[in-house]
Specification:
about 230 residues; Rossmann fold; globular
């Protein structure tokens, strides 16, 4: 048994999985494997090497050579490419745009899964997504599937938008989430799927603190020294 575990958290959009994963990682001093940051790192590398995303041969070579490292820090993860800290650079606007383009390329997604598995081979990591417990880490010691009713999830998204100064219609947000649920569950690549041995966590009516504590207590109940 490893001293530290792999914790996989899957679930639909706005179920609270990403925020919970980040808070839990900080509490447990685990590395939160931020998949978004990994795609941003790929985008930065492609930009630095002047690689066109349509040039599959060049992209494949870049993906073979790239070295992405994520390190735990009390102030948030630090992201490294080939040993260089790029944590701030990958959050800049040009990388945000390029990352959204590179993230849909299948060879990129497959390579990121390889790197994620490498990061988690010794445990001490938390990752959230849609197929983490089924595809990326099928042997994870802990698998959670977070759910919440669509009205709760829509209100969360609506409140997040308001906090950013965005004006959205709550009913439209709910319709969008229902569409995304359907799309995420039936897409051919990386569909939303619950692992057979996952523990369901219904976050309807729970705060981030409450759902994080619930998961932490489940882990503690199995391993009292966590």
């Amino acid at each position: 048994m490893r001293d530290k575990f792999v914790i996989a958290i899957d679930g639909p959009a706005a179920s609270g999985k990403s925020t919970t994963a980040r808070v839990l990682a900080k509490e447990m001093q685990y590395v939160y494997i931020d998949t978004g940051a990994m795609y941003r790192a790929c985008a930065l590398q492609a930009l630095q090497k002047n690689i066109e995303l349509k040039n599959i041969d060049a992209l494949e070579q870049m993906l073979r050579d790239i070295c992405i490292r994520i390190e735990y820090s009390p102030d948030g993860n630090r992201i490294y490419i080939d040993g260089k800290d790029v944590s701030e650079r990958i959050r800049e606007a040009d990388i945000t745009r390029l990352a959204s383009e590179i993230a849909v390329i299948e060879i990129v997604r497959l390579r990121m899964v390889e790197l994620q598995r490498e990061m988690g081979k010794n445990g001490g990591v938390i990752m959230d997504g849609r197929d983490i417990g089924t595809v990326v880490f099928p042997d994870a010691e802990f698998k959670f599937f977070m759910i919440a009713d669509v009205k709760t999830r829509a209100k969360r998204r609506w409140l997040e938008a308001q906090a950013k100064g965005e004006i959205l219609d709550l009913k439209e947000v709910e319709k969008e989430l229902l569409w995304r649920d359907e799309n995420d569950s039936h897409r051919s690549h990386s569909p939303l799927k619950r692992a057979d041995d996952a523990i369901d966590i219904d976050t309807t009516g729970l705060t981030i603190e409450e759902q994080t504590a619930l998961i932490r207590n489940i882990i503690k109940a199995r391993y009292t020294d966590v």
